[in-house]
Amino acid sequence: MQYKQLGRTGLYVSRLCLGAMTFGTSDVAPWNAVGVLDQKGAGKLVDQALDAGINFFDTANVYSRGQSEIILGKALAKHRDDVVIATKATGSMGDGPNQQGQSRPHLLHEVEASLKRLGTDHIDLYQVHAWDPITPIEEVLTTLDDLVRSGKVRYIGCSNYAAWQMATALGVSATRGLESFVSTQSFYSLVGRDLEDEIIPLAEHSGLGVLVWSPLAGGFLSGKFTRDGESSESGARRASFDFPPVDKDQGYDIVDSLKEIADSIGATVPQVALAWLLAKPAVTSVIVGAKREDQLADNLGAVDLELTSAQVERLDDVSAISSRYPGWMLARQAEQRDPNAA
């Protein structure tokens, strides 16, 4: 396993992170289409990940309405001092109007609930799961700062923020002397490269770690799906939960290229897709989820897969998205200023 510094912190996390969204069962959508593993099944995956050198595990309070945290906490109980646990809060955890969002009361309540479910006295990385359009960012950050100072949280991060939202939060933290986000957890994939426009440049400029969720786009890049949209494996998650949204016409061209590269080097389609992400300098860790041990074993193989520059370039080209303003103008102006910037 390889490890990388989390943002500008002194903490190192494994390049692959085991996501626990499949842990637990729930009747609440969309978790009823995702969470399938009981304690025994999840425990096997956690042990397999630990044996492979993974020290980074990610969950959220909303995953199967808390069951994911309970199962993950029990599976990691004997290894707590050796692992980095990340969880998230923002989503609805009840029917009341104050049982969601990032108000001070809700975050204070949810961190205590997550600590109890995880069976730990601290959370290594506590992430807000989305931008809260209601709660002032000053209230959010002041609350998170208090949690770090209390010792209940070690570091804070954001997830699914736009670049302007991250910049706003970082500015408030800097001017008010508050704890600052050390990472962003964002969707990034060969079929989802939108964050290259503004989020990755901001992360690199500000020293934020980039944690990738859904690197295979909900299984679209698993090699199971054909151009007619049918899965070659019954029960595939994307067959019933078509998320995240992708341009499928371009996506099938990407899958074709992945298959050709994979066949040429004796790898699998998912391994090549993950290796492409791991080759990106801005990426800190890629979150992989699995229902079975063979799926996780396949994903783990991506760490030792080093693509050639030609293979990376081919995948860059087939997955390219059109440059949008002001990106194309900034690139043009940077090139005029510095020819080496092109």
Word description of this protein:
It is a single chain. The chain is built from twelve helices and ten strands. With 342 residues, the protein is an alpha/beta fold. It has one domain: NADP-dependent oxidoreductase domain (TIM Barrel, Alpha-Beta Barrel), CATH 3.20.20.100. The strands form two sheets. The chain has an eight-stranded parallel β-barrel, surrounded by six helices. Strand 4, helix 2 and strand 5 form a beta-alpha-beta unit. The longest helix is centred in the last third of the chain and has 18 residues, at 248-265. The radius of gyration is 20 Å and the shape is globular.
State Rg: 20 Å
Average pLDDT taken over every residue? 92
Number of helices: 12
Order of helices and strands: EEEHEHEHEHEHEHEHHHEHHH
CATH level-four homologous superfamily name? NADP-dependent oxidoreductase domain
Instruction: Tell me the distance between the termini.
Output: 33 Å
Q: What does the overall shape look like? A: globular
Cross-sheet strand order for the largest sheet: 3-4-5-6-7-8-9-10
Number of domains: 1
Assigned CATH architecture? Alpha-Beta Barrel
Relative helix content = 25-40%
What ranges have pLDDT less than 50 throughout 5 or more consecutive residues? none
**Biggest sheet features:** 8 strands, parallel, barrel
Give me the CATH fold name.
TIM Barrel
Class from secondary-structure proportions:
alpha/beta
CATH hierarchy, class: Alpha Beta
Number of strands: 10
Strand percentage lies at 5-15%
